[in-house]
Amino acid sequence: MRDIYKCRVCGRYVEEPIHCGVEAIPVLDSMRRVMLSKLLSGILRHYPWEIGVKPDEEGWVRIEELVKGIRERWRNKELYQWVRREHVEAIALLDPKGRFEVRDGYIRARYGHSIRVRIKYDVVEYDGVLYHGTSRDRLFRIIREGLKPMKRLYVHLTNDLETALDTGRRHGDPVVLVVDAGCLSSMGIKVYKATDKIYLVEYVPPQCIKHVIGKHQGRILTP
Questions:
Q1: Model pTM score
Q2: Residue burial 187-222, b: 16+ Cβ < 10 Å; e: rest
């Protein structure tokens, strides 16, 4: 991820050191951006109680309470004494995957929850294929049983192959499952749109997995 700045002219958070023709104000370097982004994802999706905050039923948390909780109650709080509201807002607004949503002083994760929240997603009729990144060692079970949410509320799919590969890399030797969205619809499985890239379903049956994309010697291969 890149450093974050704030434009002196338009007031927007940006990733360019020069904006609107003038030098922008540094807000967050790339290392701290990654560190805080991962922490925000974990807290908002999985363990808000660890900093003493309680999301409402739609997953919203007041940003000021979130910042206070991180600075005062997080187990490695000494690493985050620098965190301020503007850092949280900047990360949320510039997140490349659209993981966060900010509204009226509140923030929530758009998707990825293991805690029970009720986020209203749009149901879409998606034509074509969607992708799911995973690791090769999980492949046999998935082909046999289909894709299940496991500890999360939904199975995550994406319309972007590189995003799916990135997910697979985080789990080990990456593979990407190619899912027939039309097959899902024909079986009465709703497809929800979380962001421009991320789609959610409750389950992907084995018969809706068209094929698998793997890697061999740095090349992408489709069996």
A1: 0.89
A2: eebebbbbbebbbbbeebeeebbeebbbbeeeeeee
